[in-house]
């Protein structure tokens, strides 16, 4: 995909030169295209990313554009783990995610994926008291200045990384009260159509199994297909993205069928623990569409 993008950009430059058009913008576009790395897989979401051998980096190697980390507030710091028994003081949100992302963005001159300005989503799932944990998260995010997408008195400015807060619902009130923040809120289907704007809730997530009976065997029931597309349409009309967790994640035709239906409905994030499996699926899907 990246090579196709470079060929198109260079072809545009050649055409412009052929008719005598030479501008600094065209030269810069050609230089940018020649330096651009592989495109991120914008739908790919690494669920429980921290459980992989190389948290964050395994997902980035597979070109995922969304990763998820569960956090606990312990002795004033944010530790990353799925269950309390797995807590390790050396595995902090800062050491596993924030500092490495800052270093990568600096090395790539402002982006997580070289030459691609689409922000990477860091979904932070709060497992301890939401208000207190968010307060510490907010403090840590502010250390990194302009690395993160920010909300400032009604305006959103994209950064290289967009932090979305999920998990304990008590995080929402302190977030809503802030005139300026470096994180956003992960809504549920009950938030769809509410008065809360996309500048607070850019993402709507929910449990697939709580909303649909179809798990990939046979065709999806027409009523469930209509429901899925209605959810996505309503969210997109408000500038919100959609993600479902608890979708089938065992390799096989059922998982592929669900993923295919999600893409057809234009669901924004496909949830998986199988990084290589989802990458292969998305690449095959794009190749089949001539991309």
From TrEMBL:
A Pfam family for this UniProt protein? Answer: GDPD_2
Keyword Signal carried by entry: yes
> Signal sequence: where?
1-29
- Enumerate the InterPro entries for this protein: AIM6_PI-PLC-like_dom, HAT_RTT109-like, PLC-like_Pdiesterase_TIM-brl, TAT_signal
> Which superkingdom?
Bacteria
Q: PANTHER family per the record? A: ALTERED INHERITANCE OF MITOCHONDRIA PROTEIN 6 (PTHR31571:SF1)
Q: What is the name listed in the Swiss-Prot or TrEMBL entry for this protein?
A: Altered inheritance of mitochondria protein 6
Record lineage: Bacteria, Bacillati, Actinomycetota, Actinomycetes, Kitasatosporales
């Amino acid at each position: 995909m990246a090579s196709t993008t470079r060929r198109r950009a260079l072809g545009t430059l050649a055409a412009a030169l052929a008719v005598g058009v030479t501008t600094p913008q065209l030269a810069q576009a050609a230089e940018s295209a020649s330096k651009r790395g592989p495109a991120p897989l914008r739908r790919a979401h690494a669920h429980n990313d921290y459980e992989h051998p190389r948290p964050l980096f395994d997902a980035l190697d597979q070109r995922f554009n969304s990763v998820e980390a569960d956090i606990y507030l312990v002795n004033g710091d944010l530790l990353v783990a799925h269950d309390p028994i797995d807590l390790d003081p050396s595995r902090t949100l800062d050491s596993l995610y924030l500092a490495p992302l800052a270093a990568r963005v600096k090395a790539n001159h402002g982006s997580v994926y070289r030459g691609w300005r689409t922000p990477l989503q860091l979904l932070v799932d709060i497992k301890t008291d939401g208000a207190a944990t968010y307060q510490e998260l907010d403090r840590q995010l502010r250390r990194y200045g302009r690395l993160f997408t920010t909300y400032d008195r009604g305006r959103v400015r994209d950064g290289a990384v967009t932090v979305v807060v999920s998990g304990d619902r008590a995080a929402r009130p302190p977030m809503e009260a802030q005139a300026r923040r470096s994180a956003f809120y992960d809504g549920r289907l009950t938030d769809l159509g509410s008065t809360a704007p996309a500048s607070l809730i850019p993402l709507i997530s929910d449990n697939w199994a709580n909303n649909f009976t179809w798990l990939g065997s046979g065709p999806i029931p027409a009523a469930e297909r209509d429901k899925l597309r209605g959810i996505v349409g309503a969210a997109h009309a408000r500038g919100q993205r959609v993600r479902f967790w608890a979708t089938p994640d065992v390799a096989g035709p059922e998982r592929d069928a669900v993923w295919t239906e999600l893409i057809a409905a234009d669901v924004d994030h496909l949830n998986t623990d199988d990084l290589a499996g989802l990458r292969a699926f998305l690449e095959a899907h794009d190749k089949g569409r001539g991309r």
